[in-house]
Amino acid sequence: YSRMFEKCEHDSKDKALLVINQMNGEIDENGMLQLKNGYKFDENMSPHSEFLEEYAGCVEKAYEGKILDDKRIHQFRMYIDRQNINYIRNNYEGETDYEKLIDYSNKENEELDYGSDSIYHNRIYLERIDKDLDKHILEHAKINKYECNDKIKTSNGLSEYIVDKTGNFVTQWDILKTVDGKNAGTNNGLIESNPSKYAAKLKGKKIVETESFNYVSSGTSHTLLDTEPADWTKGYENELKIKMKQKWKYITKKDNYREKEENDY
């Protein structure tokens, strides 16, 4: 399939959508991309695979200098994330997800990148936002002081993992469920996308702090293709993400929000 995709002569946007179409990807009534009829990635596709690099390059070419404005292409990355999470968890050894990630790095000779900011992946629950956030920061200081999720990426900057202080992944795939009530991270099927089925205070944190595959590793194109479309006000997120992002906020005053430590992952 990777060779076929590479040889495909469609224009870049049609080529990016071709994969989603072939996996029966459709936006449902709650604005979530669903892969219908049991389609999923090959379980042997690695986080540093040539196909993912080729696909990301295709998206970058399709939207050169423009914001990614296609809901399906934006949300398609969540299924790449699921593949990446399961690949590490199912193929490598360790007591924690982080230990398995290190085992992956060592066995595959794949250097890991620890240098990225993780502010979007550290959030607090706020019923509302005031112009002055200081009192909210103080109110939640005892929690946030001991709370630090860090971002770790593959060397190409595309696949990423969010790791908490216990060494486990922070991922929406531990929270999302299928319409028949099974864990969507390990069971294939349509995802329950109705926000009312998830309690914001109990389930929302991992849903919004989750990893997100990058179409570009850094720079202006990264902002246009990866960061801006994930802003819930832009209209490309599903209703579940929108609801949770309205409640779980990241704080831009990073030095007050997060106490940096030498031993951060």
Please outline the helices and strands:
Blueprint: H1 2-7, H2 12-22, E1 25-27, E2 33-35, H3 50-62, H4 71-91, H5 97-108, E3 112-113, E4 124-125, H6 134-139, H7 141-144, E5 150-154, E6 160-163, H8 200-209, H9 219-227, H10 239-247, E7 248-249, H11 254-257
Antiparallel strand pairs: 1-2, 3-5, 4-7, 5-6
Q: In brief, what are we looking at here?
A:
The chain is globular. Helix content is 40%, strand content 8%.
Folded structure, characterized:
The protein contains eleven helices and seven strands. Helix 2 crosses helix 3 (50-62). With 265 residues, the chain is mainly alpha-helical.
> Which structural class do the helices and strands define?
mainly alpha
- Using the CA coordinates, give the radius of gyration: 18 Å
DSSP helical segment count: 11
Shape category: globular
Strand order of the largest sheet: 3-5-6
Helicity range of the residues? 25-40%
* Number of distinct beta strands: 7
The ordered H/E elements are HHEEHHHEEHHEEHHHEH
Query: Between the first and last Cα atoms, what is the distance in angstroms?
Result: 36 Å
Mean pLDDT: 90
**Percent of sequence in beta strands:** 5-15%
Q: What profile does the largest beta sheet have? A: 3 strands, antiparallel
Descriptive tags:
two-stranded antiparallel ribbon; single chain; disordered C terminus; 265 residues; 40% helix; three-stranded antiparallel β-sheet
